[in-house]
Amino acid sequence: MRLRLLLVVFFIFLPSLAMATVKGIYINQTTLENTAKLNYMIENAKASGINTFVIDFGKLTKAYQQNIELVKQSGIRYVARIIVFNEGGSSEQVLSQAYWEKRYEKVQQAIGLGAQEIQLDYIRYSSKQAPSPRNYADVVRVISWFKGKLAGTNIPLQADVFGIIGFRPEMRIGQDAKLIAPHVDAMCPMVYPSHFEPFREHAVTPYETIFNALTSFKKQFSNKLSFKLYPYIELSNYRWPLTTAQRHVYITAQLKAVRDVNADGWYAWSPNNYYDNLFHVLQAQQKA
Fold first, then answer.
1. What is the C-alpha to C-alpha distance for residues 26 and 273, in angstroms, rounded to an integer?
2. Confidence (pLDDT) at 7
């Protein structure tokens, strides 16, 4: 009787456990392979309520293999970030299945190390590409191919996309949210205020910038998404210098915008993995 009761309780709460809000940070391979820095990240991430690391997978090394175990043992979810076309692809790369195959080898290696999800970045044409409606079809073909290769693995596929496509498709890079949606399990729009124009306006209105971009993004699907929405926020604005106190406000505003649009979670981006300001904000919120 007691076992039956426990099973009933477990299955009642199972859906809510599966739908836990994703709170993640980006970890580059240099940080991953630095044991002391990685342990610092794990300790502070867990103290801050962060449950996911999006970790670069570039080259398989002994240090990578050893340290990825530290992440998994900590209970933090391991999402492998795979760069598909470095800085965006040329026509030759985007149309080359042989090129895709080389990138898929990295996907297989990451899964072999225990990656629970795959995140494709730079899954687009170069911004120097001539604008053409065909660019959309080309990019979708690549994403669809990766999704097909993952069929049967139970490994979800995420795609990083430009924040601007929350407002409209971007013909030059070939990203259209509505065309990409059927081929991914999650989309990660990079809604960095520093990337929107006029930057002086968006730098001082981070909440409005992200809220409007994500609201527009969801409206393209009549607010009924067939995929998870995990926007990327930024921890500093490279075009608008901020003091430490101002960065705390900047981060807090972005997190509030993500919550207010009912996204499924968020990822925080710092190319050099400086997360102390984020840790400070999140830990202060826990104490409030």
1. 7
2. 40
